[in-house]
Give the backbone structure.
Amino acid sequence: MCDFTGADEIPTVLTRRIIPCLDVDAGRVVKGASFVNLRDAGDPAELAARYDLEGADELVFLDITASSDSRDTMVDVVRSVSEQVFIPLTVGGGIRSIDDARRMLNAGADKVSVNTAAINTPELVAQGAAQFGSQCIVTAIDARRLVPGEPRPPPPDASLALDETSGWQVFTHGGRNPTGLDAVKWAQRTVALGSGEILLTSMDEDGQQDGYDLPLTRAISRAVPVPVIASGGAGALAHLYDAFAGGEADAVLAASIFHFGTYSIAEAKQYLAARGVPMRI
């Protein structure tokens, strides 16, 4: 993507996006830290309507339990939200087949996000891109910094394995299962299969509110020719700026700072625009 030229300079090429993330469990929005310690954050339709009015560029809904029952609940959530909100909706969690993707798109989603299923069945990304278009297929990658002694199982494809220069391993099932996949190599493979966007979450920073993992975000952004959404770690408006400037992200995903009223979307956009980040105001 774009080259990082300094902490106070953002290339003014494409409008950057702010995307609230709504983790949905049994029809309610929840938020935790590093994928655990969840607490209730509100009704998804009410939050979505608020973010639409505040000027959010898109919304992401993630079904964090992804049982068949919760997928039915998520369909209902997407349908009710899409009737009230007129910004793009991305839905993820439990998308395991083309039929699952079609159900969400028919319910009103504009994009579907695949994570574990893409690793188990990479052809799903290619099939989805062929049937719905690459713009509808988002690959979600949950990555964590390598830790000495951490399990590194052999990945399904040896060419995507971690090596001595790797910095981050891909995890699945809500961050519980290591895959042995190198995050950068996996991002490149999913784009080659047809993914039109990468939703990149740092497990280390998720919910910590200490800032995004800039080296991870920058590494993925430079490795793929499609937009990268930075996720995990936003706690201050400066962190959003850093994700664009230092992480070279195309969009930022945030939850806690918006759900609990720390900042509004409008405040975030005004802050970023004043610092030269191209925003849709």
